Amino acid sequence: MDWIRFAKSGKDLTGLRGRLIEVTQDELQKHNKRDDCWTCIRGMVYNVTPYMDYHPGGEEELMKAAGIDGTDLFDQVHRWVNHESMLKECLVGRMTTKTATASKAITLPSSSTGLTPPAAGPPLPNKDSQPRYDWFQTDATVHLAVYAKRKIPSSGCVTVDLKAGILRLEVLLGKLSYMIHLDLARKVEENVSVHTAFSVGKIQVTINKQTRGKWTSLGQPLEFHNTFLCKKKRGPFYRDCRLVSKMEVTHNTHVFRLQLPGGTVMHMAAGKHVYLKAIIEGTEIVRPYTPVDQNLVSASSPSAHESDLYLMIKVYPDGVFTPYLNSLQMGKNISVSGPEGTFSLRPLRDVTHLYLLAGGTGFTPMVRLINLALREVDTIRTTKLLFFNKQEKDILWRCQLDDLAAFNERFQVEYILSEPSASWTGRKGRVDEILLNDLLVRPEGSKCYVCVCGPSAFTEQTLGLLKQLCFSEEECHAFKG
Q: Residues annotated in the binding site for FAD, as ranges?
């Protein structure tokens, strides 16, 4: 929030007195110092010098993009951030591919930032391996079938939105995304059902017609219809979800239950997160959160296909987003994206020992991984959670974790406190090499996999320690916000 207030102070943050210019590659490269730092994101150039003191990752991280195209670096760490809004006052102008000796003044399209969305790029090659779709109908229903041409994870990979006759269907297949986007030919009921044949890779969506009869066509194609692209090229798609309940977990953490619209079906696979978006003090703020199951100890299967999302969120009194969310009245809406994230279930094949290292609310992606490991991946003999917190009162779902460990011999949990009380008899301290060497056992003939999530400093330090302990990059995954 300090940066937002500073950016709105009226100061000239670009050094160009409001002019927008075309920037050549040579010109961009000149601005690569701490006190003169420009970077390019999606074809637009920003003077990020004023942002140095406000960047959460510090000056060192920001300087990695100094004087260059920082789009890939940005997407690796901050894809959820709306940089157009956050850096609006720092906009220098547009990158140009023309060679020029001086920067030329330009006029950009009229919008809040002047940013024109980049082209998504052409569909991927090799059409034989690309998904396709077909449709058929009865007098009362329309059935749309998608053939993924590969097996589909049992946790699902489909998000469907149907609103005002517009159908948007997205199928996530690893890092790729197949989309159907149509303005349907006639009026339909705003509810859909989705049936998936996982082993053969077929998804069938059923829609109810408002008026019985035969359609001569399915509808008119819209943007990105029938395309197969890298997921990151699409950008998040938001729908309004209603806050229906809030349950206290600890003194500063709650589970927020968000109800999806009636025309939305969202398959939330393990390891995926969503973005929440709100306008706060006139600025669009976006934050990533990982849905959890309704509870950890349950007789039913993981709630990947439910109509509600459960988000376990720590409220920071001095934060920007969480106080807003915490004050949201029941029944009010908030914008929620579809599933995002790079986590893949493929590395878990044949894993025998799954280690989950969580710092604070970094516990949230571990919830569905625990359920997945215990219910669906028979090869995993041991799932061990190393849960790092400051004090006992900060431990999330401790009773449920203890119950699960007591009733399932394949699950173990270790609590490590950095600021324990005098009565604490468990492990103490912070993550270090000695602790990890003691707890991350690698039996002969085993195949191990480690997942890490927590504050940035915790995650980076833990990854470094795992490397020292000879865990390869292929054996580790870090959930990064």
A: 287-289, 314, 364
